[in-house]
């Protein structure tokens, strides 16, 4: 089944809103058109969160069509999403209502386009998302600021049900009651699925209504995919709880509004919801488009409204990936890591694996299947997971702790430090590390993890570049006397890096020369940096400049004797990293180099990120930060 991608312009949204008098069919039609554009955006981008966007679509449509007072005005009512995954659907609705430049819907997850998660640089996004659970607290702060400024407006914040596993949500509730925050309404998109699987199977929320009531909040519950039920629920919230904060528990279906994506289509034995992230297959997209267009057509025909006139998709202005090799299929490190962990677990019965709602993305599904009694799922609760790892270590186990790096190094940072003060030996494995993939946006780009963890006593930070080195570092982590943080890139490992000889047993603080050149030396780690350093070396060689490229996987350790040997043959030494320049590998190497007290040290500098990371494709983001091969060649050229 094939289809020609098309999208619905704002003029058609306006016509539908004007010509359908019934408020409930009008809302259903608008949310259907928003779903069409959401699917178009995610298919075009090659990634995005479709299921969450669809589950929340009717809630957000009801808010913007009927509940929010002057939402586009500076002093109008405020709505924002705390969970953030649903932002493609929010973009689609805002563009359809004329609140957002509709040309941007063609640039989801692209440089200078629409970020993969909410960002204040986009119109009508009052807050950024980060680690989940921040939204209610931010809404409280906004209410307090409004009171001080004498502004009279209401604040609505959307949370996910899985998001409610984060403790900060519950910390925020009592204060809202104490301050009598009648302006604040929390809406829970209760679609029963977090990321890829059922909330009840991860960390059940129990009696959600009773929990909120126990904090003194008003509670209303309704079908969150029914416009009429939503209208009644918002009216009840205003009438029944006029003097304090309230929560609307909206029972929704993940992927609602389209049978192709709806979680209700899952078989009873299925544990994984397939449309949380990424892009659907062409066949699923075609089926979903047909279904959504039929739904829209039926709603319009019921009121004698002419069919929607979509527009063809503009020609794409670039691919979604960087360079590709025709005879080589790039791979990613997380599956390799998962296999290495299984091999280790067969040899070492102390090994246990802990996960925070990312079992698919961290490569742990095979481990869970082979060692179900040694796998522990903690849900969206990183602090709980890391402290539990300390307990497991105290009980004689060797915990391997997993999440996206952006969450693992930050949310439980104090817990990691506490474990270190007790001398607990733990391995932390953070995937999605570094600048790319950049499509999700800076909330998911771990570019300060080295600085955040590098100073923790007894914690070695290391980044493998290819499969051989990943396996070697997993073995190292199991045998090391210190704890280890493995910084795992989720970018593709391409042929030039896969071929590098990095499989030997690693020695802490020592690197490997992977390209012998002249006295111009560049040091880096990981598949992204090494790929582009090797590319820069080729470009420089064409001009007669031979670059020496060195892999140093240790990001907070350097052996002084090894460094002295490297420095003696160098005129210029540059450390390149996809991390902020402050507190990263370059700072570690620079200090060690200075402490050597060489009489004629090489010129030294570090290249890395100097500003907030951009959202976009791999190629355009690396170029924007001058970390692609061409930019590095220009910077390194003597």
In short:
The chain is an alpha/beta fold. The longest helix has 23 residues, at 23-45.
What distinguishing features does this structure have?
638 residues; alpha/beta; five-stranded parallel sheet; 20 strands; 40% helix; globular
What does this structure look like?
The protein is of the alpha/beta class and 638 residues long. 40% of the residues lie in helices and 15% in strands. The chain is built from 23 helices and 20 strands. The strands form 5 sheets. The protein has a 6-stranded parallel sheet, sandwiched between helices. Strand 14, helix 17 (467-479) and strand 15 form a beta-alpha-beta unit. The longest helix has 23 residues, at 23-45.
Name the strands of the widest sheet in spatial order.
11-10-12-13-15-14
Task: Please state the CA-atom Rg, rounded to the nearest Å.
Answer: 26 Å
Kindly state the number of beta strands.
20
End-to-end separation in angstroms reads 55 Å
Q: How many individual helices?
A: 23
Structural class: alpha/beta
**Which stretches are poorly predicted, pLDDT < 50 over at least 5 residues?**
319-325
Percent of residues in helices: 40-55%
pLDDT averaged over residues: 95
Outline the biggest β-sheet. Answer: 6 strands, parallel
- Proportion of strand residues: 15-25%
Given the C-alpha coordinates, what overall shape results? globular
């Amino acid at each position: 089944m094939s289809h020609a991608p098309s999208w619905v312009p704002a003029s058609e949204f306006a016509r539908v809103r004007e010509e359908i008098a019934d408020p409930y069919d009008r809302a259903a039609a608008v949310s259907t058109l928003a779903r069409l554009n959401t699917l178009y955006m995610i298919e075009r981008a090659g990634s995005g969160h479709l299921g969450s966007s669809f589950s929340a679509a009717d809630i957000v449509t009801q808010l913007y069509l009927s509940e929010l007072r002057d939402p586009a005005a500076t002093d109008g009512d405020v709505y924002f999403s705390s969970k953030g995954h649903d932002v493609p659907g929010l973009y689609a609705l805002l563009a359809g209502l004329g609140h957002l430049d509709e040309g941007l819907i063609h640039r989801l997850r692209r440089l200078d386009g629409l970020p993969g998660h909410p960002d204040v640089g986009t119109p009508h996004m009052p807050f950024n998302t980060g680690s989940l659970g921040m939204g209610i607290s931010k809404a409280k702060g906004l209410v307090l600021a409004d009171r001080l400024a004498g502004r009279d407006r209401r604040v609505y914040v959307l949370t996910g049900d899985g998001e409610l596993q984060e403790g900060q949500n519950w910390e925020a509730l009592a204060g809202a009651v104490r301050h009598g925050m009648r302006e604040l309404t929390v809406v829970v998109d209760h679609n029963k699925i977090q990321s890829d699987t059922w909330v009840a199977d991860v960390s059940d929320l129990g009696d959600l209504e009773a929990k909120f009531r126990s904090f003194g909040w008003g509670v209303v519950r309704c079908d969150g995919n029914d416009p009429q039920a939503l209208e009644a629920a918002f009216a009840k919230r205003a009438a029944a709880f006029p003097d304090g904060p309230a929560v609307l528990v909206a029972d929704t279906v993940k992927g609602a509004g389209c049978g192709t994506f709806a979680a209700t289509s899952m078989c009873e034995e299925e544990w994984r919801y397939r449309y949380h992230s990424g892009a659907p297959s062409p066949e699923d997209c075609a089926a979903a488009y047909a279904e959504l267009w039929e739904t829209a057509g039926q709603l319009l025909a019921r009121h004698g409204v002419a069919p929607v006139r979509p527009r063809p998709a503009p020609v794409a202005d670039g691919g979604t990936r960087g360079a590709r090799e025709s005879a080589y299929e790039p791979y990613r490190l997380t599956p390799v890591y998962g296999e290495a962990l299984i091999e280790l677990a067969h040899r070492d019965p102390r090994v246990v694996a802990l996960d925070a709602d990312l079992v698919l993305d961290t490569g742990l599904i095979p481990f869970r299947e082979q060692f179900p009694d040694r796998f522990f799922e903690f849900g969206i609760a990183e602090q709980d997971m890391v402290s539990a790892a300390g307990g497991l270590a105290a009980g004689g186990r060797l915990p391997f702790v997993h999440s996206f790096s952006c969450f693992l190094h930050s949310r439980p940072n104090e817990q990691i430090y506490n474990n270190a003060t007790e001398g607990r030996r733990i391995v932390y494995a953070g995937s999605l590390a570094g600048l790319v993939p950049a499509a999700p946006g800076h909330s998911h780009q771990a570019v300060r993890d080295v600085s955040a963890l590098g100073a923790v006593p007894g914690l070695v930070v290391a980044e493998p570049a290819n499969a051989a080195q990943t396996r070697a570092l997993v073995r190292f982590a199991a045998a090391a006397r210190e704890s280890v943080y493995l910084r795992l890139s989720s970018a593709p490992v391409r042929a030039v890096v896969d071929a590098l000889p990095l499989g030997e047993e690693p020695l802490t603080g020592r690197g490997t020369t992977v390209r012998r050149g002249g006295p111009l030396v560049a040091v880096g780690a990981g598949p992204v940096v090494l790929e582009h350093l090797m590319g820069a070396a080729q470009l420089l060689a064409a001009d007669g400049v031979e670059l020496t490229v060195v892999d140093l996987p240790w990001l907070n350790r350097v052996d002084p004797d090894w460094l002295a040997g490297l420095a003696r043959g160098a005129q210029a030494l540059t450390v390149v990293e996809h991390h902020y320049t402050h507190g990263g590998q370059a700072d570690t190497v620079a200090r060690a180099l200075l402490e050597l007290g060489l009489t004629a040290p090489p010129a030294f500098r570090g290249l890395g990120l100097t500003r907030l990371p951009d959202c976009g494709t791999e190629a355009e983001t690396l170029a924007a930060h001058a970390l692609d091969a061409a930019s590095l060649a220009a910077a390194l050229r003597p």
